[in-house]
Write a structure and sequence with these properties.
InterPro entries: Apc4-like_WD40_dom (IPR024977), WD40/YVTN_repeat-like_dom_sf (IPR015943), WD40_PAC1 (IPR020472), WD40_repeat_CS (IPR019775), WD40_repeat_dom_sf (IPR036322), WD40_rpt (IPR001680). It comes from Olivibacter domesticus. Keywords: Repeat, WD repeat. This is WD domain-containing protein, G-beta repeat-containing protein. The radius of gyration is 18 Å and the shape is globular. It has a domain of about 80 residues: Thrombin, subunit H (Beta Barrel). The termini are close together. The protein has about 300 residues and is mainly beta. It has a 4-stranded antiparallel sheet with strand order 1-28-27-26, with no helix packed on it. The protein is built from no helices and 28 strands.
């Protein structure tokens, strides 16, 4: 893994304002994006082109999440509304009305029909994904609960808040089991490693922290970017991960020791975003997708030898 070739395959345009959220379908043929405009957009990833507006919305969308074991997409809005749309049947199946402030995080389980929703109101709500009835609601912080990460075993999940703290919850009882206070600013990205042996966290302090989930002690600290870390994602097949930032760069890291493999940035000569990169995902082994304040979706081919 000594050489990385980076090719920009597509620059998808059509959004009229900054893009904050992205998600894909199961086989990565479709991409969904949304942000500070009036709709959730569906793109054809095979052709690299606009397909349709999947869902008109009345307020900005801060998060998109495909519900596990389904063709349902959960759309979290600035208004606090979460709309559940079946993207195969092309219909709205439920509207989750509870939060009165923006929804920033949504996560679902494979092992049980439940959905976690986090909000600027500092609380988290739990919903049944079959009846779409609210099961629980609990307070987490006095500030925004920005992001959610569920580990592979689905026995614990982490919540990152504006108060710079990460709180670990039991996924069965929804009880608080640990609190981490290592960042100096709001938490903006969370990710468990695929083997669940590490919890990675990013914040507005530009730091990337790696914790051991046995007792959540800090294993490694990196100043990963110049500004806010908005995304941390592991490659689905290769031992690498990618981060994205407000500093307009994408970085590829070796998963084994977190050494930097590639800095994809304007300074390094890459045709990357001109403004903040707000979200990132791997759609396949060699395809990385980013969205930005510059209103553009970029699809990258990452070849590693």
């Amino acid at each position: 893994m000594s050489n990385i070739e980076v090719i920009k395959k597509h620059a998808l345009t059509g959004h009229q304002n900054p893009i904050f959220a992205l998600e894909r379908n199961v086989d990565s043929t479709l991409l969904f994006t949304a942000g500070n405009d009036k709709g959730v957009v569906e793109w054809d990833l095979i052709k690299g082109e606009f397909k349709r507006v999947l869902l008109p919305v009345k307020s900005s969308v801060y998060c998109l999440h495909r519900i596990a074991n389904s063709s349902l997409l959960a759309v979290g809005e600035r208004s606090g509304l979460v709309t559940i749309v079946d993207f195969e049947a092309n219909k709205v199946v439920a509207k989750l009305i509870h939060h009165e402030k923006p929804v920033f995080g949504i996560q679902s389980f494979y092992s049980k029909p439940e959905l976690i929703v986090s909000s600027e109101d500092g609380t988290v709500s739990i919903w049944n994904t079959q009846s779409f009835q609210r099961l629980y609601n609990f307070s987490v912080s006095k500030d925004t609960v920005r992001c959610i990460a569920l580990n592979k075993e689905e026995n614990v999940f982490a919540l990152g808040s504006k108060d710079s703290k990460i709180r670990i919850f039991d996924a069965k009882e929804y009880s608080l089991i640990h609190e981490i206070d290592e960042h100096s600013a709001a938490i903006t990205a969370l990710c468990f490693s695929p083997d669940t042996h590490q919890l990675l966290t990013g914040g507005r302090d530009a730091q990337l922290n790696i914790f051991d989930p046995i007792d959540y002690h800090l294993v490694k600290n990196l100043t990963a970017h110049m500004f806010t870390v908005y995304g941390i994602v592991y490659n689905p097949e290769l031992p690498i991960l990618a981060t994205a930032s407000r500093d307009k760069s994408i970085k590829i890291w070796r998963a084994e020791d977190y050494s930097l493999l590639k800095n994809i940035s304007l300074e390094k000569g890459y045709p990357v975003h001109r403004l903040s990169i707000n979200n990132i995902l791997w759609s396949s082994r060699n395809t990385l997708i980013t969205v930005s304040d510059d209103k553009t979706v970029m699809v990258w081919e990452i070849n590693i030898t």
